């Protein structure tokens, strides 16, 4: 899978993608006996789009921020602001 394909997948609009075309992550299995690169390849083949899938029927869209803050820092800031 090349970078352009992954970039296109990351831009998937969950408002227009047919839910039936998405893989439910609970159906993805990882063989931990395989090498890391093989596990990654197997995951990508099974999930089809690592940025957009379903989880128990709920559409999930993954994205990453470029602000360089960790999840822990963001959560701490959020809860401190409450």
Query: Order of strands across the widest beta sheet?
Result: 1-2
Structural class: alpha+beta
Kindly report how far apart the N and C termini lie. 42 Å
Helix content: 25-40%
Residue-averaged pLDDT, rounded? 92
How is the biggest beta sheet arranged?
Answer: 2 strands, antiparallel
Strand content: 5-15%
Instruction: Give the ordered list of helices and strands.
Output: HHEEH
Shape: globular
Count of extended strands: 2
> What would you report as the Rg, rounded to the nearest angstrom?
16 Å
- Per DSSP, the total helix count is 3
- What ranges have pLDDT less than 50 throughout 5 or more consecutive residues? none
Description:
- The chain has 82 residues and is an alpha+beta fold.
- Helix content is 37%, strand content 10%.
- Strands 1-2 form a two-stranded antiparallel ribbon.
- A hairpin with a 2-residue loop joins β1 and β2.
- It is globular.
- The model has no long low-confidence stretch (mean pLDDT 92).
Sum this structure up briefly.
The chain contains 3 helices and 2 strands, in the order ααββα. It has 82 residues and is α+β, with helices and mostly antiparallel strands. Strands 1-2 form a two-stranded antiparallel ribbon.
Give short descriptive properties of this protein:
alpha+beta; two-stranded antiparallel sheet; 3 helices
Fold blueprint:
Layout: H1 3-10, H2 36-47, E1 52-55, E2 58-61, H3 71-80
Antiparallel strand pairs: 1-2
